[in-house]
Amino acid sequence: MKKTSIAIIAALLLTALPGCGSSPAGHSGTPGASTAGLMGLREYLNAYPNIKDGPLYGTSINVSNWGEYLDESLNREFRELTGVTVNYGTFETNEKLYSSMRTGGSSYDIVIPSDYMIGQLIEEGFLRAIDTGLLGNYRYIMDACKNTDYDPENKYSVPYMTGTVGLVYNTAEIGEAVDSWSALFDARYSGQILMFDNPRDAAGIALKMLGKSFNTADEGEIRAAFDMLSEQKPLVQAYVMDQIYDKLESGEALLGPYYAGDAVIMMEENEDLAFVHPKEGMNVFIDAFCIPTSSENTAGAYLYIDFMCSADAGLRNLDATGYTTPLQNVYDELDEETRENPLMYPPEDVLARGEVFLSLPEETRSLYNDLWSMLLSE
Question: In the chain, what is the greatest distance between 2 CA atoms, to the nearest angstrom?
Fold first, then answer.
């Protein structure tokens, strides 16, 4: 896979211009019989004005998403609209979602992983091809979020949200301005530092401190990053994911890496919190709807994705999460204050420091997992 250019997502975040291994058995990545008779949400509702007459009435879909990443009242509204119940669950990391899919412990109709994990799931045959022509609202997806490195032909994913990663810190307790990931390695904040509880994000911070790419496959560079994490470990209060939100908002910890979208909400709840995109560089990401090959209600999944790409649903999700929309119909409704929010739409000089995670070779992923296990067991 070629090295991605941040310009694709930068165009979206800055301007939102219009238009802007081996496969497991049975995982072919192509549509199965359950896609027969699919139609978009509007067409479906027109065909069955009495939803109880629809063939999907009384069925359910299983959806797995990141925590704090959806206005969950939309799931209830979707059920009222279509008669399809949403069994909604969350995951903390891409790796935990992958493990659940790999072991077959859960059956999903929709998952919402990040870019690099989507690439891996495609490579390993875990995702069903999506006919975007059946999604009436797909036309609102900005071109800036299409033809990505992880899904160059837009065959397996429909963008959900985009955003950046940075550093959240408590200005009331940390008197000096913070502009570097080095704050997470500062002994003055021992016991008050949080770190991401997954190898890709945690090692990525160390790689940026070393001036290296997130996507390096050089074993020496990766080991050097984990050596930094090993030296940092005595300073770390906890390796966590969703709990970063509560710990920082409540003052239980003073600083940690987190997502800009969540930071928008956190800073509204705690005025002492600040967010910075560190000078060494940071992750810029796209999360997207995907349909696993194991989906048992693919038609219901199509209706749900189309529903979530409507202007009303998109606006409510943006308001609830603080993340950046890939939908032109949603962007057109935003007020000037939102469009000028530097956390949601960072300036060009900030985005120039950004980098997208790509799917790594299998041997590199194994190295990451081994070094991460060793780090946590120290």
Answer: 65
Interval 55-83 mean pLDDT? 96
- Two tokens, residue 346: 């960072």
**Alpha-carbon radius of gyration of the chain:** 21
Count of Cβ atoms closer than 10 Å to residue 278 Cβ: 21
Domain region containing 292: 7-162+285-348
Task: Look at residue 22 in the predicted model and tell me its pLDDT.
Answer: 30
Residue type, 362: E
Distances, alpha carbon 27 to alpha carbons 12, 157, 171, 263, 295, in Å:
33, 16, 50, 38, 11
Q: At 119, which amino acid appears? A: G
Q: Are 290 and 157 in contact (CB under 8 A)?
A: yes
Q: What is the mean pLDDT of residues 135-158?
A: 96
Alpha helices in 111-259 (DSSP H): 115-123, 199-209, 219-232, 243-250
In-domain check, residue 211: yes
User: Phi and psi of 163, rounded to 5°?
Assistant: 180, -175
Q: Whole-model pTM?
A: 0.89
